[in-house]
Design brief:
single chain, 262 residues, alpha+beta, Alpha-Beta Plaits, 5-stranded mixed beta sheet, 11% strand
Length: 262
């Protein structure tokens, strides 16, 4: 049977072609969602970071970095920490981790910073504030965001011009995740393990991700307290009884009628 051109013509379809970077991000997100559905364990995975007071240097040489990582290792055992990604720069650090008991995060980080200050004071005869405030943390919603956060952390040396490739930098978790080198501090997250069955293939995909653009990077750079979608942030607001996402800029002024006169 022959068909006329009008009969053969079907509805028009619009085909959206993804860029290589978008395809890679989609693949990584699909793998991580399959490994760990949204908040599967209910345990939050914070991205902890802090910098020196007035952005001053806090790691003057390799011995300082070794001392800090030794303290991280000690805290890892004491608090039941799984450390997925880390990076030590000259004036700040990043840790992406998970605790058996998330309520102990403040005790963990406060003890870590305080112990390092004591060692720093003894070594250099330094007196005064070393860290810029307490510490900062970003609550990560799910493992798809965890991968993006790990990418951001391990790319810090490249952004700072200290390394041509992320795995060229010694003081981060990247050599373990991208090259398979042994690092006693680092644990592989379930979503990272689910990228591929073979370790070499996982490392290859991670290197690709590190060298690709990530649409979630701007949200991580803003560091607004929570990294996740709207419903997740609303659930945290309900749990804590307040808005957990920090607004950028100055707080809104109250109307004159609401101001307290003194």
């Amino acid at each position: 049977m022959k068909f006329s051109p009008l009969q053969r013509r079907g509805p028009r379809r619009t085909i959206h072609l993804l860029s290589p970077e978008e395809r890679l991000v989609t693949r990584l997100e699909t793998a991580s969602c399959r490994a760990c559905p949204a908040n599967s364990s209910g345990r939050r995975k914070p991205h902890v970071f802090n910098r020196g007071h007035n952005s001053e240097t806090v790691f003057l040489d390799d011995l300082d970095r070794q001392n800090f990582l030794a303290l991280v290792a000690r805290s890892r055992q004491r608090f039941g920490v799984r450390l997925y990604h880390y990076c030590l720069m000259s004036n700040h650090f990043h840790l992406v981790l998970q605790l058996d008991d998330p309520r102990r995060l403040s005790s963990l980080v406060a003890g870590l910073l305080r112990s390092y200050v004591h060692r720093f004071h003894r070594r250099y005869g330094f007196v005064g504030h070393l860290w810029q405030g307490r510490f900062h943390s970003l609550v990560i919603q799910r493992d798809a965001y965890l991968l993006s956060c790990g990418r951001y952390v391990e790319r810090n040396p490249v952004k700072a011009g200290l390394a041509a490739e992320p795995w060229d930098y010694r003081w981060s978790s990247c050599r373990a995740s991208a090259l398979g080198e042994t690092d006693a501090l680092v644990d592989e997250s379930p979503c990272y393990r689910d990228l591929a069955a073979l370790a070499g293939r996982r490392q290859h995909l991670w290197r690709q991700f590190l060298l690709s653009d990530d649409p979630r990077e701007p949200a991580i750079r803003r560091g607004a307290g929570v990294l996740g979608d709207g419903p997740f942030c609303e659930r945290l607001d309900a749990v804590h009884g307040r808005r957990v996402r920090r607004r950028r800029g100055r707080p809104a002024k109250h109307p004159a009628s609401e101001r307290i006169s003194t």
